[in-house]
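In response to reviewer comment 3 from the previous cycle, which asked for concrete evidence that the modeling workflow produces usable outputs, we include below a single protein chain processed end to end. The sequence was submitted unchanged, and the resulting C-alpha cells are shown without manual editing.
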Amino acid sequence: MVLFSQSNFEKGQRLFTENKLSEAKSIFKNESQNSANYYKSVEYLGDIEGKNKNWDDAISYYKILKTQFPKNANYWYKYGGALGMKAKESNKFKALGMIDEVEQSFLTAAKLDSKHIETRWALVMLYIELPGIVGGSEKKAQKYADELMVLSKVDGYLAKGYIDEYFSRYSKAEIHYKKAHEIGNSKTTFEKLYDLYLNKLKDKTKANKLKTEFEK
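The workflow returned the following C-alpha cells.
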C-alpha cells in the first residue's frame, strides 16, 4: 500500500538511492514540466548521466538548471564538474577551449555560496592540476585550501596535504594528513595517510602501524 501511494517522483528517488539508474531515469524523464518536482527531476537526470559518464547529457541537464536558477551555487558546481570531466577525457586541444568555462563555473559557485565545500575542493584540484601556462597556480590552490580550513579543519588539512603530495613534498603532506586523521579518524583520512606511507614514503612500518591502530 505504501509503495502504491508513492508518487512517481518518490519512486524515482527510491530507485536512484538503490542505484537502479535505468529505471529511475525512465521515471524522471516522464515528470511533467508543470510538476513541482520537475527541476529536481532534471537534477537527478544530470546526476544519473554523470554516474554513467555521459558528460554531454549531464552538461545539458545542469545547463538547464544553472540557467533557470543562476543564484544556485550547487547547479554551477555540478555544471562545472561535468564540463571538467568532459575536458579531462577530451584531447588536449579541445580541453584547452573548455578550461575557462570550467573555472568560471566553479568561481561563480564559490562566490554564490561562501560555505560550499565541494566547490573549493574542485578549485584546489583545478589550479594544482592545470599547467601554469593555462591558469594553474599553487598560490590560487592554497587560497581555497585556506578557505576550506575555515569551513572544515579536516578538509583544510586534506587539501593542504593534497597540494604538498602533488609537488612531492611528502614530509609536509604527512604532517597535514596526520592532523586531518587525528580530527576526522575516518576511512578517507586513513586512506590518504596510509597511501602516503605505503606508496610515497615507502615506509611499511608506519603504514602497518596506522592500519592496526585504525582497525582497533
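Confidence is low (pLDDT under 50) at residues 1-5. We consider this sufficient to address the reviewer's concern, and the full set will be provided in the supplementary archive.
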